[in-house]
Design goal:
heterodimer; A: 114 residues; mainly beta; 7-stranded mixed β-sheet; 4-stranded antiparallel β-sheet; 0% helix; globular; B: 107 residues; 11 strands
Chain lengths: 114, 107
């Protein structure tokens, strides 16, 4: 059974940092590009970032460039999102997703507020 | 960046109705389009890939069409479990972009 389990969300002050993790199981993690997708409360879906299978290429939405870093550890079947200089508008549920195969985690809530 | 304009933003329909949702891309994306269904508190679920291919396990009342810049998701006969929010996603280029969503509500 495919599982993607996110962790690391929580409440952080504006300007602060958080690191999200996603533990993958049930599929060959190293064979697939992986993404982070977020959803602000009551709003639509927003693609945030993607990393290719071997980590050689990374892509970001403009609003997080220079602040967020996506990474992966294929030996640990894990995906990460380092989020720095957080803003109120980054408040959202963050999903780890293998979009090619339609694999999604349950999401982790990040709240940026003073 | 490619903008995806989805319409309508919401609709009210009855069980058994035919429902059509449209996504327009700001530039051609071939058939690099997927459709998702999302229910409250849940992760999205893919319904259609490559604009018109039905995801395994998805009921045949769902269909997709289009290529280039205009795409359509059709539900041929709306069922109670179909009341949800639907999104299109283009994966032709980066950044990937979703449509704004269409909330399908009970009439």
């Amino acid at each position: 059974e495919v599982q993607l389990v996110e962790s690391g969300g929580g409440l952080v002050q504006p300007g602060g940092s958080l690191r999200l993790s996603c533990a993958a199981s049930g599929f060959t993690f190293s064979s697939y590009g992986m993404n982070w997708v977020r959803q602000a409360p009551g709003k639509g879906l927003e693609w945030v970032a993607k990393i290719k299978q071997d980590g050689s290429e990374k892509y970001y939405v403009d609003s997080v460039k220079g602040r967020f870093t996506i990474s992966r550890d294929n030996a640990k079947n894990s995906l990460y999102l380092q989020m720095n200089s957080l803003r109120a508008e980054d408040t959202a549920v963050y999903y780890c997703a293998g979009l090619h195969n339609d694999y999604w985690g349950q999401g982790t809530l990040v709240t940026v507020s003073s | 960046d490619i903008q995806m304009t989805q319409s309508p933003s919401s609709l009210s329909a009855s069980v058994g109705d035919r429902v059509t949702i449209t996504c327009r891309a700001s530039q051609g994306i071939r058939n690099d389009l997927r459709w998702y269904q999302q229910k409250p508190g849940k992760a999205p679920k893919r319904l259609i890939y490559a604009a018109s291919s039905l995801q395994s396990g998805v009921p045949s009342r769902f269909s997709g069409s289009g290529s280039g810049t205009e795409f359509t998701l059709t539900i041929s006969s709306l069922q109670p479990e179909d009341f949800a929010t639907y999104y299109c996603l283009q994966h032709n280029s980066y950044p990937r972009t979703f449509g704004q969503g269409t909330k399908v509500e009970i009439k």
